[in-house]
Amino acid sequence: MPSTVLQFPPSDPGLLAWSLNFKDLITAAPTTYGLTAGDATAYGTVHTAFATALAACDPAVRNKTAVATKNAAKATLKNAATLLANKVYSTAAVTNAQKIELGIPPRNAPSPIPAPALAPVIEVQSVNAWTVKIRLKDAASGSRRGKPPGVSGASVFSYVGPAVPTDISAWKFEGNVGRTTVDVVFNESLASGTRVWLTAFWFNGRKQSGPACPPVGTHLQGGGVQLAA
Predict the structure, then answer these.
(1) Are 222 and 127 found together in one domain?
(2) Complete DSSP assignment for 134-190
(3) Which of 27, 90, 95, 192 is geometrically suited to a Cys-Cys bond with 40, CB 3.0 to 4.6 A?
(4) Which domain holds residue 42?
(5) By C-alpha distance, which of 119, 88, 120, 123 is closest to 103?
(6) Which of 102, 135, 156 is the last residue before a domain boundary?
(7) The pTM is what?
(8) Residues 100, 18: contact at Cβ < 8 Å?
(9) In the predicted model, what is the mean pLDDT of the chain?
(10) What is the pLDDT of residues 59-69, one digit of tens each?
(11) Distance between the two ends of the chain, CA-based, in angstroms?
């Protein structure tokens, strides 16, 4: 369980009022919040020390020593409250309503990143000998060149042949890439003009994949250089 960073009231009187409510509730029924009577007693001591130090900072009597004592007591109180809040958060039986009553807001559950909903768009940028340079684009944004939100990378596949294969196992896996510009290198034994196809799908950080894009075809040049049509 990660450590909690509580948002305490910004003013000293506000903090004292918050602490008093916290102290009274955990003292009345410590086990209800996953705490012990000893936890409540120890916090009561810390609360009293802060209240006493704050009272000594009355404008009519305050001095540098009193302010320093109050600031030290304030820091101790915040640390003690944070430690107890972590115990409360780690107790599954404590409801969100009880946490709100204590003045410690419920933690927001992280929202899982879903699998990509759309396929990428493949743009063939050039053909240089047996290397086809492609760029993957976000289909939702039209001309955007970067990855969509929540996407970690793409899986790229190739096929050599005059028409798109009907058997998915005929595709060759070219690798997983984190960038959007990719060089796909074909076998140098392939003749100039050989028809090749490329497809790809996005995946998120949990390796959940989205749909594959429609295959895009081009021709190898076997030593020549051209922009793909």
Answers:
(1) yes
(2) EEEE-GGGSS--SPPTTEEEEEEEEEESSS--SSGGGSEEEEEESSSEEEEEPPTTS
(3) 27
(4) 12-102
(5) 88
(6) 102
(7) 0.55
(8) no
(9) 90
(10) 776 688 999 99
(11) 55
